[in-house]
User: Which sequence fits this backbone?
């Protein structure tokens, strides 16, 4: 054995990694901006897109050089902008963002089915708007994979082939998601809405995906409907099994509508998609998003000296542990439901997350510092996120 190899691997060292990968440190990039008084501006979206661009090195890129593992923003619905460009928005109380079939006849069928379902729920569909996009900026892989199922109802009514081309990116009275299987800088080029200065919001969550356990697909780009996730769920198999077992109890809360919710999770989806689906079920069932996340992703509360003087907090975690097994990371979760926006770490706390607040009322958080332009602003407070906060 040569002296060079002997010194590297003998007697206690692992085999040396090739130099080309020795410095690789891949993980999703995620963050958010919010104006604490709820004042909307295009600057918030502009800086979220800038932060997203600075996270490009954290995401994966396809072999065609243009497709990405995924990038997107989750933000407040920009009602003033929508009313200016779409007359039906004046009377709207909610908004859905959907990926639809490219074939016009199939798209019309899906729209008809969605209108029927809305009316069956007592809602009044006001209209459809074709979001202006530029397909020329997409890579070949992105154009070829823009599809995914919406659920059993579409399959039953229109067939499995049509259902594969339909996906609900967001459906809410408060938030909307713009995402795709693209690189960071391509997102605003693809969605013309994001480049319009009239698009004003008070908060925005951004995410650049590095796909680790699934192949890149449009629906698996993040943010999801409620959160953006940096990390992996290492307890995923157990979480999925318990979620499947719990489906039998959905009828106690949702009644006859429980059949429409099953399956809640799917092993074919990413860990982030399954966590978001579970979180969404809890939030739509009446729990707050913060309470739901504390239940799903608790801190390490047993034998925790910091909680010795707070038995009420320990009791809450003990109670939650009896009804929901934890989804353990490492995981950094950035979340927003239109009422609250924030971030939390799982009990391991192994994902970077730094934040600051400014004198003019902004809170800025991200996987990295320096990605948002805050030159000229006075920093009032800054720190790093820790588990349980």
Assistant:
């Amino acid at each position: 054995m040569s002296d060079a190899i002997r010194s590297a691997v003998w007697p206690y060292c692992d085999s040396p990694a090739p130099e080309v990968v020795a410095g690789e440190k891949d993980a999703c990039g995620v963050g958010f901006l919010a104006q604490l008084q709820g004042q909307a501006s295009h600057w918030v979206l502009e800086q979220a897109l800038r932060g997203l661009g600075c996270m490009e090195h954290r995401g994966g890129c396809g072999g065609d050089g243009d497709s990405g593992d995924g990038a997107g923003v989750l933000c407040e619905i920009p009602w003033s902008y929508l009313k200016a460009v779409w007359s039906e928005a004046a009377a709207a109380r909610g908004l859905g963002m959907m990926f639809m079939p490219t074939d016009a006849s199939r798209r019309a069928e899906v729209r008809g089915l969605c209108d029927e379902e809305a009316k069956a729920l007592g809602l009044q569909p006001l209209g459809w708007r074709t979001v202006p996009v530029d397909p020329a900026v997409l890579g070949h892989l992105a154009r070829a994979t823009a599809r995914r199922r919406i659920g059993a109802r579409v399959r039953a009514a229109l067939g499995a082939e049509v259902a594969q081309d339909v996906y609900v990116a967001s459906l809410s009275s408060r938030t909307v998601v713009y995402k795709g299987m693209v690189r960071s800088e391509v997102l605003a080029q693809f969605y013309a809405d994001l480049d319009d200065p009239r698009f004003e919001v008070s908060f925005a969550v951004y995410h650049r995906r590095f796909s680790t356990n699934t192949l890149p697909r449009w629906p698996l780009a993040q943010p999801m409907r409620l959160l953006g996730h940096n990390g992996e769920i290492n307890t995923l198999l157990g979480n999925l099994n318990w979620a499947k077992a719990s489906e039998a109890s959905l009828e106690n809360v949702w009644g006859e509508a429980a059949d429409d919710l099953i399956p809640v999770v799917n092993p074919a989806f990413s860990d982030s998609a399954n966590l978001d689906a579970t979180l969404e079920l809890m939030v739509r069932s009446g729990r707050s998003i913060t309470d739901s996340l504390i239940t799903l992703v608790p801190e390490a509360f047993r034998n925790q000296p910091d909680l010795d003087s707070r038995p009420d907090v320990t009791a809450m975690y003990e109670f939650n542990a009896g009804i929901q097994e934890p989804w353990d990371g490492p995981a950094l979760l950035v979340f927003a439901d239109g009422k609250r926006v924030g971030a939390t770490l799982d009990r391991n706390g192994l994902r970077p997350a730094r934040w600051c607040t400014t004198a003019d009322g902004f809170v800025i958080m991200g996987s990295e510092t320096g990605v948002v332009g805050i030159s000229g602003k006075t920093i009032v407070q800054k720190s790093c996120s820790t588990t349980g906060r």
